[in-house]
Amino acid sequence: MRKQIRLDSFEQGIEKDISSYTSMEGSKRAKVEQALDKARKTKNINIRINEHDLAVLKSKAASEGIPYQTLISSILHKFVSDRLVDEQDILKSMQLLESRG
Fold first, then answer.
1. Cα–Cα distances in Å, from 48 out to 51, 76, 89?
2. Quick one: which H or E segment has residue 10?
3. Which residue, 33, 7, 31, 26, is CA-closest to 18?
4. Which of helix, strand or coil describes residue 75?
5. Digits of tens for pLDDT over the chain (101 positions)?
6. 4-8: long-range pairs with CB below 8 Å, 24+
7. What is the CA radius of gyration of the chain?
8. Distance CA 68, CA 47 (A)
9. φ, ψ dihedrals at 3, nearest 5°
10. DSSP state at residue 101
């Protein structure tokens, strides 16, 4: 007996519009595949981390339903790509903007 695959709404939208997609060929396809390969490459590292911090990370990861290593990797990626934001900085900026308005 074959397991039935259920698609989410995003995947169903792709299936619905499949005829509007075209395949890539040649150098354009090679560039996309090279970028995807680069994005998928990972390097194992060993780090020392405070036990309490690790426990908190594991708890937060569990509440998000993801492995804690994935959460750590995501945090590091956001930091190096300048997309990690400090909630306190945002609140201070909002207060400054409100006080000027």
1. 9, 15, 28
2. helix 9-16
3. 7
4. helix
5. 667 788 889 999 888 988 888 888 889 999 999 998 888 888 899 999 999 999 999 999 999 999 999 999 999 999 999 988 888 888 899 999 998 86
6. none
7. 21
8. 14
9. -75, 130
10. -
Tokens 């595949």 identify what position?
A: 33
Contact 57, 68 (CB under 8 A): yes
Provide the token pair at 99: 């006080």
Is-contact 67 61, C-beta < 8 A?
A: yes
Q: Kindly write down the DSSP assignment for every residue of 22-71, as one continuous string.
A: ----HHHHHHHHHHHHHHH----------HHHHHHHHHHHHHHTS-HHHH
